[in-house]
Amino acid sequence: MADSLATRASHAAATTDEGAAGLARRAYRAAPWWARVLAVFVLSRVVSTILLLSFADTQAANPWTAAKPGYATYAQIWDGQWYYIVAVSGYPATLPLDTLGHVGQNAWAFLPVYPFLVRAFMVVTGLAFSPVAIAVSVLSAAGAALLVYRLMLRALPASSALFAVTLFCVAPLSPLMQVDYAESLFLFLLAAALLLLLQRRYWWMLAVLAVASFTRPGVVAFGLALAVHFVVWYVRRGREGFPVRERVTVAVVTVGSCALGFAWPIVAGLVTGRLDAYTATELSWRADYIGYQKLVPFTAWIQGANWWLKGGAGLLVLGVVVLLFVLFLTSAWARRLPLDLRVWPASYAVYLLAVFFPQSSTFRVLMPMFPLLGALAVPRSWVWRVGLVVVSIAGQWGWLYICWWVNGYDWTPP
C-alpha cells in the first residue's frame, strides 16, 4: 500500500512537471508571431540595459556628463548631443569655419526626421529630450524587429526567422537601439522599404524611402539596388512577364530613390548658400585622421587602410575583407534569402566604399546590412545558435567599452 502511494505520488509529481513544460510549450505555440518577436525584443533590451547601466556606473566625468550619470543622461552622449542641438536649435544658416577657412563639425551632418520627431513629442508631452528620444528609438527598434521577422519569413522557416530576429536584437551594436541615435528609426524605415520591395509595392516603398532619406544617409544605395532589381526582373520574366507599365514604375522609382539620396545635401546647400555644405561638413569628421581633403569616390577606404596599417598591410586586409564579404554573399546560406535581400547589402557596401572613411563608427554604419543575419540563422544547430548569441552579447560589452564608454580623451566615437 505504501509502495502504491509512493508510486502515485511520484507519478503525480512527474505529471505536474511534465504538465508545466507542456503548458509552456503550448503557450509558446499558441502565441501570435508578434508576441514571440516582442518577447525576444524585450529580453534583449533587458540585457543591453544592464550592460549600459554597468558602464554608466563606472563612467568618470567627461565632456558630456558627470561621473556615474543616469541612464537618460548617458544615452545622450556622442551624436545624441548633436541630435539634441538639432531638436532645440535647428540648423545653422552659416557654416562654422576654422582659421584656414575649412568647414568645422556642425549639425548639418545629422538629418532632421529623428530630432524633429523627438521635438514634436517633447512639445506634446512636456518631457525632456533624452527620455523622449529613448522612447522613439526603442519603439522604432521594436517595429524594426517585427518587420525583420516578416522579411525573414519569406525565405526561412518560422524558427529560423525568429532566430534571425534574435541576432538582430542582441547584435554587438544593439545598445544603439535604446539611446538618442537615429539608427533604430532608419532600420525600421529600411525594413519597411525592403518588405514593400519584396511585395512589389513600389510607390509605397518610394514614400517610405522619402522619409528615410531625411533620417540617415544611404538611401542613394537603394537606387543601385533597384537598378539591379530591374535588370534581374527583366531577364527572368522577359518583356511579356514584365509589362511596360511595371517597367516604367520601377524605372521611375529607381531614379526617384537616387534623387532622394541627394535631397539633404541640396537642402543644406540652399540654406547655407554653399553647395558643398553637407559634404564639407561630413569631411570635417575625417580631418583628424587624414586632414582636410576633397571627396573623391572610392579613395577613402584606401586612405583609411594605409592610415590604420602601414606598408601595404592595410590594403591587404581591405582586399581580404572585401573578398570574404563577396564569398559570404554567394554562400549557400546567403542564397537562401531572396535576391533583393542580398542585393541591398551589396549595393550598400558599394555606397560605403564610395564615400565612407573607415573609423570606429564603421560598425555602426554597417547596421543597415541586417538582412544578412538571415544567412546566419540558416543552421539549426543549438550549439551554433547559442554560440552566436553569447558572442553577440560579449560583442555588446566590447563595443560599449571601446566606443561608448568615454575614457579620457576618447577618439573612438560610436
Automatic annotation (TrEMBL):
GO terms for biological process: GPI anchor biosynthetic process. One of its GO terms (cellular component) is mannosyltransferase complex. The chain crosses the membrane at residues 33-56, 116-149, 156-175, 181-198, 219-236, 248-271, 313-334, 346-370, 382-407. Keywords: Endoplasmic reticulum, Glycosyltransferase, GPI-anchor biosynthesis, Membrane, Transferase, Transmembrane, Transmembrane helix. Pathway: Glycolipid biosynthesis; glycosylphosphatidylinositol-anchor biosynthesis. It is found in: Endoplasmic reticulum membrane. Its main location: endoplasmic reticulum. It is a multi-pass membrane protein. One of its GO terms (molecular function) is GPI mannosyltransferase activity. PANTHER family: GPI MANNOSYLTRANSFERASE 2. This is Mannosyltransferase PIG-V. It comes from Frondihabitans australicus. The lineage of its organism: Bacteria, Bacillati, Actinomycetota, Actinomycetes, Micrococcales.
